[in-house]
C-alpha cells in the first residue's frame, strides 16, 4: 500500500509498504478515505519531535471504512464508515475513566508524558499513521466513531482532531459571558478555537497571526477581529491598547513551537530566543492576558524544555490549562453544532490532494503556498 513516511527533517515521501494486519483481537483495519496534514505534523517535518525514526508512517487525522475486525471487536463491522480520533486509548484506565483520552495509561508511550497517537513517531507510541491507504486501529471498540449518515466525510475528518482541539482550547479557557478572548495562531486549530469561543459566550474574539490570508479567513469564518503581528511593534502592548489597557480575559496558544521566523518579533521587539521551538506565542499569551486571566495551551511543544515567563504568570495570578485534546469526549456536542448549522468545519479545507502527491501537499501547507489552510489527502480508490 501507499504510505507517507518520514525519512529525515523536511523530507516526507510516499512509499510502498506492507499492508497492516490484525495484531491483537481488539484491532480493526481501516481503509482510509480521507486524511489531513496537521500543524502537529509540521513539528515532525521540522525535526522537533524527539523520537522520530526513519520510515515512521505519519498521519493522525483520518477517517475511512472498516475493512477487517479482530475476533474480540463487538461494535464495529466490516463496511462501517468511521472517523478515528487521533488519540489511541483503552477506555478503561484511570485516565480514560476521567475522559482524559489523550493521556491514556495503557498505550505504548508510557515512558513519555502523553498517551498514544496515530502516526506521531515513537514519541507517541510508534503507532503507524493515517496518511496511508490502510491503518491498524487498536482498541477498535473504543476510539472509532461511526460517521452518522448526515455528516459529510470532510466534516468527519475534521472531527478527528482540529475541530475538537480548537473547541477544547476554548473550553480550557473557562470563558465567561462577555469575555475578550485572544487566539494566537490562525491555523485550523486557532480558527476552530476562535469559532468555538463564541459557543462559550465570548463577547469579543481577536486572532493573531502573520499570514494575512489566514487572518482574512478568521474574520469571515470566526467573525474575529485580527492582528497581524508583523505590523505591530509589540503584540502585548497592542492587545492591551485594544482592551482598555487591561489585557485579555483569556489567551489561547494555538501555535506551539515554531521553527520559523516569529522569534524575530519577540517580547517588545527584542530578539530573546532564536532556537527552533521557541515558545513565542506563549510569551505573548502570558504578557497579553489581564491580571487574573486565563491561558489555554493546545499548541504542541516538541522539545521538552522551553523558557517561559513563569514569573510574569505568577505575578499576574494567571490560571494556565493545557493538554492534548480528548477528542472523543467532544464528539456528540460538536456533531450537534454541525447539525444546528452553527459551523461547517469543512470550510477550512482549501486543498484536496492525491495521497501520491503528499510531498507537494507538505510543501504547500508548511510554506503557506496557494493560501493553504487545511490540506486533505485523498487515497486512490
Ligand atoms: P498551523 O501550522 O496550520 O497554524 C499555526 C499558525 O500559527 C500559522 O498560521 C502561523 O503563521 C501562526 N504563528 C506562528 N507563530 C506565531 C506567533 N508567534 N503568534 C501567532 N501566530 C503564530 O497549525 P494548526 O494545525 O492550526 O495547529 C496549531 C498548533 O496546535 C500546533 O502546535 C499543533 O501541533 C497543535 N495541535 C495540538 C493538538 C492538541 O491536542 N493539543 C491537536 C492538534 C494540533
Ligand atoms: Zn492533528
TrEMBL record:
Q: What is this protein called?
A: Glutathione-dependent formaldehyde dehydrogenase
Listed cofactors:
Zn(2+)
Q: Name one GO molecular function term.
A: zinc ion binding
From the UniProt record, list the coiled-coil ranges.
none
On whether Glycosyltransferase is a keyword of this UniProt record, the answer is: no
InterPro entries in the record: ADH-like_C, ADH-like_N, ADH_Zn_CS, GroES-like_sf, NAD(P)-bd_dom_sf
What is the native source organism of this protein?
Luteimonas wenzhouensis
Span of domain Alcohol dehydrogenase-like N-terminal: 25-143
What residue stretches are annotated with the Alcohol dehydrogenase-like C-terminal domain?
188-259
Q: Which UniProt keywords apply?
A: Metal-binding, Oxidoreductase, Zinc
The record's similarity note reads: Belongs to the zinc-containing alcohol dehydrogenase family.
